[in-house]
Automatic annotation (TrEMBL), chains A, B:
Protein name: Uncharacterized protein YcgI (DUF1989 family)
Ranges for domain DUF1989: 9-174
Organism, as annotated: Methylobacterium goesingense
One Pfam entry name: DUF1989
């Protein structure tokens, strides 16, 4: 990676939002290993267009996406393309963790707002309402499927310290990104996520 | 099933929408076998609340849903519950087929509008915009996942003539329902779907 782009850090159990211009590259880095980052992308100027797990998985005929794979919108346009990936195992099936997740799955009486709440708060200044948050592309999340029974298991991420995934924007976007807040997704501890934005290639 | 409720038929490659009151039961019937029906449910009075594959699969920890399983909304409320199911294999991963599906996957030059277009047209009078159509619960659709590679395959439905699934509404809903328009999902031919609505139990 070129050295000039500055690296930003997302604190454990938090999230952020920022713009990404067409051609720019977003690299999501797991600095310590075994930490998930939930990624959302909305089309800037028409926020009703957003990444779609249903269309992306349908067109890929695969639940595991990696280098070369496009991430489609609900209108079947490519919003992002994965151009580098040192891990190869990410999830696009499960919703961002939320207060409801912690209440329903973990039984927490006073649940954290989770990635959903962090994304909603970070995206609010861009005009994205909470109801518009779809299934996120869960970078480094390791969800396995038993082909026979259909059972889903959330396993420890395969990412090690320094592993990263790079996405290239195919149009001007608003991005939401978190350091995931669910214990099970991150092998029992909450760590930061880092990201960098590199300019479009000329 | 009690005999008094009338049975409605959805013609091949078409769709419809209707209201379903809390407690009422919707039975989706495959009259000839091997025919998929895409099902959507929106909360009446607040259409921004809609069924969510990401939340439902997360809370179920399973991709295959059947009798007893709830279908959650994007706000983690239960909208429908499956109360009877003679097949046990349905899909909640893939988006409704659309003109884009037929263009991208089938290479059609003049594509059919698909379940997406049929749902959008049927739901428009209820105030549902096309961008609000999420991943549908694809009744009788048989999508397998290879747990190792993550490959998705659309296999012939396991449903035979007369097979059916019954959903109970947990709140007042707007329902969208189709006879699916994709060749691969329906083992190569387009057939009708039937449905009936039975009153709430007193």
């Amino acid at each position: 990676m070129p050295p000039e782009a500055s690296v930003h850090e997302i604190a454990p159990r938090s999230g952020t939002a920022f713009t990404l211009d067409k051609g720019e590259r977003l690299t999501v880095i797991d600095p310590q290993g075994e930490q998930v980052a939930d990624l959302l992308a909305f089309v800037r100027g028409d926020l009703d267009e957003v990444i779609s797990s249903g269309r992306t998985l349908d067109y890929a005929s695969r639940i595991y996406l990696t280098t070369g794979d496009p991430i489609y919108s609900n209108r079947s346009n490519v919003l992002l393309r994965i151009v580098a990936d040192t891990v190869g195992r990410h999830d696009f099936l499960l919703t961002p963790c939320s207060a409801d997740t912690f209440r329903i799955i973990y039984g927490d009486a006073h649940p954290h707002r989770g990635c959903f709440g962090n994304l909603a708060a970070a995206l609010a200044p861009y005009g994205v309402a909470p109801d518009r948050i779809p299934v996120a592309f869960n970078v480094f999340m390791n969800v396995t499927v038993d082909g026979g029974t259909g059972e889903l298991k959330v396993e420890p991420p395969l990412s090690q310290a320094g592993d990263h995934v790079t996405f290239e924007a195919e149009c001007d976007l608003v991005i939401g990104l978190t350091a995931c807040s669910a214990l099970q997704s991150n092998n029992g501890s909450f760590k930061p996520i880092r990201y960098r934005i590199d300019p479009a290639r000329t």
